[in-house]
Amino acid sequence: MRRDVVRRLTEAGFVNAALEGRWLVEQVAGPSADMSVPLAPEDADRLDALLTRRLAGEPLWRVIGEREFWGLPFRLSPDTLEPRPDSETLIEAALATLGPRRGQPLTMLDLGTGTGCLLIAMLHECPAASGLGIDLSSGACEIARANALANGVGERCEIRQGQWTEGLDARFDLILSNPPYIPSRDIAGLDREVREHDPLLALDGGADGLAPYRIFARSLGGHLAPGGFVVLEIGAGQEGDVTAIMREAGWCHRATRRDLGDHPRALIFALH
To answer: In this structure, what is the dihedral angle of CA atoms 243, 247, 253, 258, given to the nearest 10 degrees?
Structure first.
């Protein structure tokens, strides 16, 4: 069972064939299954279907249907990005900035929420907080709502379809966003697993990749509560440009937090 899956992945050139093979088999048979026992015919068919998708180039976590973020499981759909470990840098930055405030009844806003991973992780860490996630995609909103319920924060988490802060009149103690930040011209050169399976809506940041930050610079101030702050994810080489855009609009750059590869990933801004 597992041996055949690993063999086929290895022959296809997958570097982590053994690990991926185990995950695919466990997705069907369960983590405690006896690997020496043949699968029932319907389970064998399901495993073969999953393997066929992976061999065709679909990313592993999309084949499995969920991915872990901040120790929590998140369902995926074609309308959402996969939560990635580097984005956990935003959670680290937000929690470090909050300090002892994390126990207070804070309000949080996540723009372009996708799976809801940023907002849900923060609500998980801040048990008295409540939050609103906004996404332009109705499919992403549906998945985010399901993930909020599955991770036990559904009663404190509202998900709304919309374009950034349009029509919003509330103020928040924390605003988070992992916006699309890839320049339009670079989309075609992305890795195949990203280019063909991640939603374009969540990737394309306009001509220079900075379009969302220009919107944030002029719009987020009206939605920040006194003492509040903003945490934004950025792409490679964007720290200087994003900081300049925000500063020109009156924002103070509080700090930068680096990701697992030691690249600037999370920028923290406040108005004072």
So the answer is: -10
- Known binding residues for substrate are 178-181
Task: Dig out the tokens for 161 from the structure.
Answer: 């379809």
Domain ranges of the chain: 2-56, 70-270
- Annotated binding site for S-adenosyl-L-methionine: which residue ranges? 112-116, 135, 164, 178
62 phi/psi in degrees, rounded to 5? -75, -35
pTM: 0.94
Q: Check: CB of residue 223 under 8 Å from CB of residue 170.
A: yes
User: Strand (E) positions, the chain?
Assistant: 66-69, 72-75, 107-111, 130-135, 157-161, 172-177, 224-233, 252-258, 264-270
CB contact set of 59 (below 8 Å; sequence gap of 6+): 82, 193, 197
Average of pLDDT values for 200-212?
Answer: 97
Q: What is the per-residue pLDDT across 126-183, written as a single tens digit (0 to 9) for each? A: 999 999 999 999 999 999 999 999 999 999 999 999 999 999 999 999 999 999 999 9
Euclidean distance between CA atoms 257 and 92, whole angstroms: 8
In terms of CATH, what superfamily is 70-270? Vaccinia Virus protein VP39 (3.40.50.150)
Q: 139 with 112: CB under 8 angstroms? A: no
Binding residues: 112-116, 135, 164, 178-181
Per-residue pLDDT for 35 more than 70? no
Whether the CB-CB separation of 9 and 54 falls below 8 Å is answered with yes
Instruction: State mean pLDDT over 1-17.
Output: 90
Whether residue 175 contacts residue 223, with contact meaning beta carbons closer than 8 Å, is answered with: yes
